[in-house]
Amino acid sequence: MDKTQIKELGDELYEALSNRTTLAPLTDRFPDITIDDAYYISLQMLECRLRAGEKVIGKKIGVTSKAVQNMLGVFQPDFGYLTDKMVYGSEMPISKHLVQPKAEGEIAFRLKKDLIGPGISNADVIAATECVMPCFEVVDSRIENWNIKIQDTVADNASCGLFVMNEDAAVDPRDIDLATCGMVVTKNGKTLSLGAGAAALGSPVNCVAWLANTLGRFDIPLKAGEIILSGSLVPLEAVEPGDEMTVSIGGMGSCSVTFS
Q1: Are the C-beta atoms of 107 and 253 separated by less than 8 Å?
Q2: CATH code of 168's domain
Q3: Can you tell me the distance from the alpha carbon of 46 to that of 55, in angstroms, rounded to the nearest whole number?
Q4: pTM for the complete prediction?
Q5: If you average pLDDT over residues 203-216, what whole number do you get?
Q6: Is the pLDDT of residue 76 over 80?
Q7: Are 185 and 195 a contacting pair, CB within 8 Å?
Q8: Would 28 be classed as within a structural domain?
Q9: Does the structure show a pLDDT above 60 at 182?
C-alpha cells in the first residue's frame, strides 16, 4: 500500500471518529492490506488527533484473551495509543464520543521507568511499574458492525475508545499475584462475567512485556509516567447510556462507571 493510500485511510478513520460514523471494512476494500500497512494507517490517524491538540499518555494492548479473540474473530494481540482525551472519571459520555461501544474489565499499569525492548522480561516490567489499578476500557470500532479482521482493528488504533481507572485502588504490583487475581464484572447490579489475570496471555505482565518487546523493534519505548492498559480478562459487553458497571479485582479493589 503506498503512502497516499495510507494517508487517505488514516484521515478517513479520523473523520469517522470525529463524526461518530462507521466505514466498510478496510480488508474488504483492500484485500491485500498487511498488518504493517495497518499500523502505518493507525499512525496517520494518531497524527490527526495530535494535530487537533490531543497528547499521548500511554498505550494499550488489545485482543489478549481467548474470550475476546473468539468474540471478534481476531486471534493475535495488537496495540494502540492512548491520549488525554480518552480518559474519564466515574461518568463516561459514550453517547457523545462513541458509536458502537463495548466495555471490558482489565488491569492498568502506571510506569515509573522506561521499558525499551527487545529483551524485556516480566521482572523488568514489575521493576518498572509504579502501580496497577482496576480499569474499564470501553472499546469502539469505526468499522461497521465490528466486522473486523486484525488489519481493520490495527488500522483503527486497536479499536480504542475511552477508559476509566480507579487510582484510589492502585497497589504495588509486588503485592499481588497478577496471574491468579480474580475479576468480577457487574452490570446494572447483576454479575456479568468472571475472569482472572491468566486470561490475558497467561498474565497481564506477559502482555506488557510483549508490548515493550514488539514496540522495541520499531524503536518505540514505553515511557515513565505512561498508562498501559494490559488487555481484557473478560468478554466484551455492549453498553448504552444509563448502564452502570463495576469491575472488582482481588487484592486491588474496584472501579465503577456510569455511562451517559
Answers
A1: no
A2: 3.90.850.10
A3: 10
A4: 0.94
A5: 91
A6: no
A7: yes
A8: no
A9: yes
Name the amino acid, one letter, at 62: G
pLDDT tens readout for residues 100-112: 999 999 999 999 9
Phi, psi (5° rounding) for residue 35? -65, -40
Is 51 a domain residue? no
State mean pLDDT over 55-79: 73
Query: Residue 35 corresponds to which cell in the numbers above?
Result: 498488518
Give one DSSP letter per residue of the chain, joined into a string. Answer: --HHHHHHHHHHHHHHHHHT--B--HHHH-TT--HHHHHHHHHHHHHHHHHTT--EEEEEEES-BHHHHHHHT--S-EEEEEETTSB--SEE-HHHH-SS-EEEEEEEEEESS-B--SS--HHHHHHHEEEEEEEEEEE--SBGGG---HHHHHHTGGG--EEEE-GGG-B-GGGS-TTT-EEEEEETTEEEEEEEGGGBTTSHHHHHHHHHHHHHTTT-PBPTT-EEEEEESS--EE--TT-EEEEEETTTEEEEEEE-
Asked if residue 63 has pLDDT above 70, the reply is: no
Cα–Cα distance for residue pair 228/158, rounded to 1 Å: 13
Tell which residue, 90, 103, 64, has the closest CA to residue 200: 64
pLDDT score for 109: 98
Cell of 72: 471478534
Least confident among 4-8, 45-49, 61-65, 129-133: 61-65
The whole domain housing 101 covers 56-259
Cell, residue 200: 490475558
- CA-nearest of 191, 178, 202 to 65 is 202
Give me the number of domains the chain comprises.
1
